[in-house]
TrEMBL record, chain A:
Name of the protein in its database record: Chemotaxis protein CheA
Signal peptide (UniProt feature, chain positions): none
Domain CheW-like: 544-674
Source organism per UniProt: Evansella vedderi
The HPt domain, residue ranges: 1-103
EC numbers: 2.7.13.3
Pfam families, A to Z: CheW (PF01584), H-kinase_dim (PF02895), HATPase_c (PF02518), Hpt (PF01627), P2 (PF07194)
Boundaries of every Histidine kinase domain copy: 292-542
UniProtKB/TrEMBL annotation, chain B:
Name of this chain's protein: Purine-binding chemotaxis protein CheW
SUPFAM superfamilies hit by this protein: CheW-like
Species name: Evansella vedderi
Highest classification ranks of the organism: Bacteria, Bacillati, Bacillota, Bacilli, Bacillales
Domain spans labelled CheW-like: 9-149
A Pfam family that the UniProt record links to this protein: CheW
Amino acid sequence: MDKSQYLDMFIDESKEHLQAINDNLLLLEKNPSEENIINEIFRSAHTLKGMSATMGFSDLANLTHQMENVLDGIRNEIIMASSELIDMVFESVDYLEAMIQDIADGGNGQKNVTEIVKKLEMLEKGSFEETSTTIEIINQMEITDYDDFEQTVLSQSREQGFNAYYVSISLREDCILKAARVYMVFEVLEQIGEVIKSVPSVEELEEESFDFDFSVTLITKEAESDVKGKVLKVSEIESVSIQELTMEKGKRSSKESNQPQKSVTTEEDVNPSLPVEEKGDTTTSSQIKNGTSSKTIRVNIERLDSLMNLFEELVIDRGRLEQISSELKDNDLTETVEHMSRISSDLQSIILTMRMVPVDHVFNRFPRMVRGLAKELNKMVDLEIVGASTELDRTVIDEIGDPLVHLLRNSIDHGIESCDIRKREGKSEIGKITLKAYHSGNHVFIEVSDDGAGINRQKVMDKAINNGIIHRETAATLTDQEVDELLFSSGFSTAEEISDISGRGVGLDVVKNKIESLGGSVSVFSNPGEGTTFSIQLPLTLSIISAMLVEVQDEIYALPLSSIIETAIIKEEDILSAHNQKVIDFRGSVVPVIDLTEFFQVPVSKEQSEYYSVVVVRKSDKMAALVVNSFIGQQEIVLKSLGNYLTSTFAISGATILGNGEVALIIDCNAFIK
Amino acid sequence: MSKISVEKDLKAIVFQLRNEEYGVEVDQVRSIERLQHITRVPRSPEFVKGVINLRGVVTPIIDLRSRFGMEAQEYTDTSRVIIVSIEDMNVGLVVDGANDVIDVPIEAIEAPPEVVGGIEADYIRGIAKLDKRLLIILNLDKVLRTDEIKEMENLEANT
């Protein structure tokens, strides 16, 4: 069987299951006796085991299997879910994550798991007797592992006088057409009853992805021996063993087995006079179930990207059509084009939202990380996550993970004080870190705040002076805000002792660079004694932006709207000169003037009138005024790269294609301001 | 590099530059386009003419005459842009004309002549003699080397 086509799906789903295990383990730690949580974890682990065995990743399957045994112990209340035990399970989850990452990176997912497997075994054995063989554990577990639906079918059929059997069938080892034999067995079984579950699943059986044993759960009116005899008539069957399933066994894994469920059709045939109320009940309960899992399909990100590319083409053509229709001034044409423009802007927002992913994708691994770090540092930290459903473009999501990890580490390490100090300060022993995401305008904000000591400005200044970042003289003139911003300068670290958590001196400036490369910005606010907040501002999307088109002589350039403060017409005499640099007085501040014609060495074709058109742009709180010849207007433009050949063009961040099919360059306003 | 170690014939696109004939391997050529509006890219090397919209992809254009230090010439109706692709880099080359594809037998290709102090010879992979034609086979990797652009930028900045 060619498994490669399932590999992506396997990786995705495994990651989801591991995440689910992670989340639930954290919950379990808070409520060690909550049976539902254990069941959830168990289910995820079990699926993971099945999947990895099918895909042939034996190390992965081994470790999951051992983990499952421990979980089984917890579930059956043989082992206590102590903190150490949960640490151990977390550790195995880490191993699993590493292996899956390896598989995703094209490796074979092999890793030495003997040590961790041994540890888990010790945990397991430490408290209860090891069950004799692995196969038995699996069987036992599988007997009990029916979902609610199957439970219901089982219990209902029993009420109606059917017998439920657990049939294990072994094929002969020299059997060649395993799938065919399986098919024959199923045919025999379906003649005498109903197969409600098979392990492995029917699909897996059809693909022959099992060794020689499989098992099915059968409801039938036939006696045990008859069933056995009929199955054995199929050739190449080594052995058949049948166990009768009793009610108690079926019930064990779930308390909700009395929850009515939609029954299989055959069953309705058997008992057409099913009470109406029960049916009504059924639909509601299944609706509630559906409510929790939203209807989604998995789409490869590449397909979304190509959809986006196609749409970009459409946006370009739209621009062209708009231009043509405004030239032709034909009513029908104008109307159609306007309608098309409206539809395509709706389409644009839909496609953009399709690429949006909740920040939860990044956030969900943080509780785990915070817990680990806090333990390591002997601090007590509570992480609160707000707005995890806030959505961001996929490309941005992929990039913000590391900066956020940095900020969180920073908060735990430097922000939150140790328990003793907190007690002395009259604060609660448990430090609090809030991770908050929210939309505002065309931006998404992510804040990491702690209720720790705040920034010690004196220390920051001393450090900055020692590291040669600022001069002693200038230090005195800095505002609090400016001192705080020093944290982002390169080569800065305030932790007195270098810990391996943060404080390697590469921290915050890296964060700042990363965020700025995404077109965002990061700032910090702090109140001594009350805590510190790092705020990250990110653009919603990176591929279509609003821009202002301007004409410089005969060339057209685009300026991102996000960096424009305003446009103005100024008189020639208002342009002053300061130290050989032209400046203007703009709303009380002196702003340098840059003539784009000169700057971009544009061939001069137009005479300069006594009025100058300027665009005032900004980078954080600094401004510059760019002189252009005329403003064309605002437009949505599609960002295109200049390709790999022109990599270092100064002050140009990319290109876009205009309505007339020509290329216009996008000006990187940050380049003008140092 | 005195011998070219390719077994088969070399299929080459033939183009003209200043009355000389050049060839590039057909595998490296994506398409041949007529000249269209080129958007100038400010502060780029002299031979970079700018970028064009090639069916939705912004593609940089370099002028081969100016790349090889030949005198400039107004573009004419026969001027063509050869779009070449090397290591996921798409670049258009402006040439005086391009109208032929020929098979060059490997044995007809000779090593480029040694030129005193010539960087230019680096760009040439070999010279093919075909009847009375001389075909200069280009080494596109060298022609499109970006580190050299950076060097030139530095030179410009220093002078």
